[in-house]
Design goal:
This protein is mainly α and 192 residues long. It is built from eight helices and five strands. The strands form two sheets. The protein has a three-stranded antiparallel beta sheet, with no helix packed on it. It has a two-stranded antiparallel sheet with strand order 3-4. A hairpin with a 4-residue loop joins strand 1 and strand 2. The radius of gyration is 22 Å and the shape is elongated.
Length: 192
């Protein structure tokens, strides 16, 4: 009996799902919202690259999200190959760019200054950390005072928060001690 895509998803969720909570949450959302409604009952041998490619292009999503869907499908078929449920991965031939359709607009220094005038701590400090250090929102939410060394002007990201779950930083590189400019040290010191 040829397994369906839904059977592959079920096995992947029970055996291969990454441990990181934010990744699990993202994958489950992609499964439930997009992949399973379209492909759940389709036998893995019936997948055709062009059909998948056309389906991805039809979705009202950003290129990055379409690329995430394509890459997740590719991973599922790689697992199916490893489990010897299929001999091919039809998603290898599916093209989907992750290139942004629009370049994100960046705040000017003046716009950042005007924004900061409207905010009080801790929100103003959060914006300063995001703008000056490039921290992710989850990394900012995961900061504790023990992560800040005002005397040596450094900040270390040790954890991240996603949907009220505290976990490790996204990558080991994220956990490096970051040097702080005097203005950032001042903002943190004033809030403390």
């Amino acid at each position: 009996v040829t397994p369906t895509f839904g059977a592959i998803v079920d096995r992947y969720v029970s055996e291969e799902m990454p441990e990181r909570f934010s990744t699990q949450s993202s994958y489950k959302s992609l499964f439930n919202r997009w992949l399973q409604p379209k492909w759940n009952d389709v036998p893995v041998t019936d997948f055709r690259p062009l059909e998948v490619e056309h389906w991805l292009k039809s979705l009202p999503l950003a290129n990055k999200t379409r690329a995430n869907l394509r890459n997740l499908m590719h991973s599922l078929f790689e697992c199916a190959r490893r489990w010897e449920l299929t001999t091919v991965n039809p998603i290898e031939l599916v093209r989907q760019s992750s290139r942004r359709q629009r370049i994100p607009r960046r705040l000017t220094v003046e716009e950042l200054r005007l924004l900061l005038e409207q905010l009080q701590p801790p929100y103003s400090v959060m914006v300063i950390l995001a703008a000056c250090l490039g921290l992710r929102v989850g990394e900012i939410l995961g900061l504790q005072w023990g992560d800040v060394d005002l005397l040596n002007a450094t900040l270390t990201v040790r954890r991240s928060v996603y949907q009220y779950h505290v976990g490790p930083a996204k990558t080991p590189y994220s956990e490096a001690a970051l040097p702080l400019a005097p203005e950032v040290v001042s903002a943190l010191g004033n809030w403390l």
